[in-house]
Amino acid sequence: MKKAILTLALAVMPILAGFFPPTVHTTVRAVNGNEVTLAKPLPVNGMSGVVIHSYGKGLQAISGILVQHAPGQATVRKGDLLDHKGLPTPKNVAAPGDKVIGGYLYNNVLVLAPNAETYARITRSGGRFWIHPDLYAAYLAREGDSTPDASNLAGFAREAQVGLVYIVQKGQAVLFDPISSKVVGRMPFQPVGTTAKYPFYTRFSKVGGGFFGGSSEGDYYQSVGGIR
């Protein structure tokens, strides 16, 4: 029994070890237009994050979204990862000394897998808040989209507070940042079994309206293979 538990633990460990970029707290060192220099680089180029601007007297708020494109160098734009249209957007995006959280919401992970067994293998490793693909399936049905892509993943991420998308592709697993539209993690991965549900594993057999009201026939690996 102990041997079986150890085998299971060893099978799960590679799913997490060294795969997820850590959340990093740093500051803005310098600003040049929409380019910022960070006091400490984020671990992976393509990582997104937020700028927390100080307004003095203890007041601070998220003022911008940044994406690192080179070590310690990032582009920044106005906005917030929270979808709250009723709140005003801060006037200043970034200033030297502002706080930066790289990998903001990276603990919230949507999983796209070919079948329930593979999904269970990933999520039982724990350590994250796993967002069920049923929610994404319902979002696609509502939007009338056909397959996962960078655009609808970004839209869903804002709505459901998703920081990363864990996608099982052919022979590998990738971590896709829906804010930057970049892959920030990659490792060899083999799914459990050979069954692959199209366009990805969800408990819905069909959802009225949109894509999921039509044919359920197709190739799972083709549906997610374009996200790179």
Describe this structure in words.
- The protein has 228 residues and is α+β, with helices and mostly antiparallel strands.
- It folds into two domains: 24-102, Thrombin, subunit H, CATH 2.40.10; 108-225, Rossmann fold (3-Layer(aba) Sandwich), CATH 3.40.50.
- Helices cover 22% and strands 31% of the residues.
- The protein has five helices and eleven strands; from the N terminus they run H-E-E-E-E-E-E-E-H-E-H-H-E-E-E-H.
- It has helices at residues 2-16, 116-123, 133-143, 150-160, 220-225; strands at 24-32, 35-38, 48-56, 59-70, 73-78, 99-102, 108-112, 129-131, 164-169, 172-177, 182-188.
- The strands form two sheets. It has a six-stranded antiparallel barrel with strand order 1-2-5-4-3-6. A five-stranded mixed β-sheet has the order 8-7-9-10-11, sandwiched between helices.
- Strand 10 and strand 11 form a beta hairpin.
- Helix 3 (133-143) packs across helix 4.
- The chain is elongated.
Topology:
Layout: H1 2-16, E1 24-32, E2 35-38, E3 48-56, E4 59-70, E5 73-78, E6 99-102, E7 108-112, H2 116-123, E8 129-131, H3 133-143, H4 150-160, E9 164-169, E10 172-177, E11 182-188, H5 220-225
Parallel strand pairs: 7-8, 7-9
Antiparallel strand pairs: 1-2, 1-6, 2-5, 3-4, 3-6, 4-5, 9-10, 10-11
Q: What is the averaged pLDDT score?
A: 85
> What's the architecture of the largest domain, going by CATH?
3-Layer(aba) Sandwich
Note poorly predicted spans. Answer: 1-15, 207-211
Rg over C-alpha atoms, rounded to the nearest angstrom: 19 Å
Main sheet specs = 6 strands, antiparallel, barrel
Classified by CATH, the class of the largest domain is Alpha Beta
DSSP E strands, number: 11
Structural category? alpha+beta
Q: What is the H/E string?
A: HEEEEEEEHEHHEEEH
Question: How many domains make up the coordinates?
Answer: 2
Strand order across the largest sheet: 1-2-5-4-3-6
Helix share bin: 10-25%
Q: State the end-to-end CA separation.
A: 40 Å
